[in-house]
Write a structure and sequence with these properties.
0% strand; 115 residues; elongated
């Protein structure tokens, strides 16, 4: 069993690192071009994979909101319930107004046809 793990773990690591490498944007890759990183991971699976995970990609802290988890003003973005979100409430009122205007237009058109 241990012999299998000694083969499977580095293989899984190199597959993960290779897929991560080829799916990463060029702007998030550090130190070398993307094709060079991919070749390094394929030719030297253990060393290349560990190198990629440590030094190859810019890592962003996890968190809500934008990719970095920070709002544009430098403060941490928090999740807001829809009924507390002013932008969401504004979009609802705009949709409601458009729907009312559409209904009134149809009613006026109907009344005009009956005359």
């Amino acid at each position: 069993m241990l012999r299998i793990l000694m083969f499977v773990v580095p293989l899984a690591l190199s597959v993960y690192a290779f897929i991560d490498c080829i799916s990463t944007d060029e702007k998030d890759i550090r130190h070398m071009p993307k094709p060079l990183w991919a070749i390094l991971v394929l030719l030297f699976p253990l060393v290349g994979s560990i190198s990629w995970l440590i030094a190859g990609k810019k890592r962003h802290p996890a968190g809500p909101g934008r990719p970095g988890g920070w709002a544009a003003g430098g403060r941490r973005q928090q999740w807001v319930a829809p009924d507390d979100n002013p932008e969401f409430l504004k979009s609802l009122s705009e949709e409601d107004r458009e729907e009312r205007e559409g209904r009134e237009g149809r009613d006026k058109k109907k009344d005009g046809d009956d005359s």
